[in-house]
Each structure stands twice: as structure tokens, then as C-alpha cells.
Amino acid sequence: MSLLLAACAAPAPNPPPPAGSPASTGSTSPAYRPGAGTVESASVLSLSSAPAAAGGTAGPATSATMAYRLKMADGTTQDVVQAGERFEVGDRVELTREGRLVRP
Predict the structure, then answer these.
(1) CA 22 to CA 99: how far, in whole Å?
(2) Which residues of 9-34 are buried (b: 16+ CB within 10 A; e: fewer)?
(3) What is the C-alpha to C-alpha distance for residues 70 and 33, in angstroms, rounded to an integer?
(4) By the 8 A CB rule, do 42 and 71 touch?
(5) At 24, is the secondary structure helix, strand, or coil?
(6) Cβ(85)–Cβ(60) under 8 Å?
(7) Contact yes or no for 71/38 (Cβ under 8 A)
């Protein structure tokens, strides 16, 4: 009986991180593979805006932080998060060594 109680008191093990996540590879930042690809999906993560008192607006010129899923020319997919220039689904892009998306 005491063995059963001891087993109940032991903390549950943490589940393993999802495959390919930075935690599963021991890395603190994603490893980007430079190359050409096509935007498969684009999602707004946050909008940055200046306070109205400073003359800022939340119009089209506002820079958004976006998450992109890319289908690379080699058939793999990559997820990239960046602020600045916006890309649409279907756009051809190039991922630089630094992890930035640019138009080819």
C-alpha cells in the first residue's frame, strides 16, 4: 500500500515538446533555411500603433507583426514571424540567411 501512495505522490513527467519546436531541438531561436518559397498562409499577430497624441493612426501604413507559413521550393514548410513589409498568400518570396522575407 505504501508503494502505491509513493507512486501517486511522484510528479507527473512533462510531455515532450512538439517535433521541430525550438524546445525539442535545444535551440532558443528557429533555424531558418534560406531559399525561395511561396506564402501558404499569413496571419496578423499584432498591430503596432503610435498614440493618437503623437499623431499616429491605425491606418494601412501601420506596421503589423505577421506570421507566415512558407512552402519552400524544396517541398518543405517554414514558419516566419516578422514586422514590416506585408506579403499575401501566393506571393513568391525569398527567405534570407537572417530569417527575413524579401521579394525576389
Answers:
(1) 15
(2) eeeeeeeeeeeeeeeeeeeeeeebee
(3) 11
(4) no
(5) helix
(6) no
(7) yes
Residue type, 70: L
- Which cell numbers in the block locate residue 80? 516566419
Q: What is the pLDDT of residues 57-86, one digit of tens each?
A: 545 555 789 999 999 999 999 999 999 899
| pLDDT at residue 30 greater than cutoff 50 | yes
**100 CB-contact burial (10 Å; exposed 0-12 / middle 13-18 / buried 19+):** middle
Terminal CA-CA length for the chain? 68
> Once rounded to an integer, what is the mean pLDDT over residues 18-26?
40
- What is the DSSP secondary structure assignment for residue 90, as one 8-state letter? T
pLDDT for position 33: 92
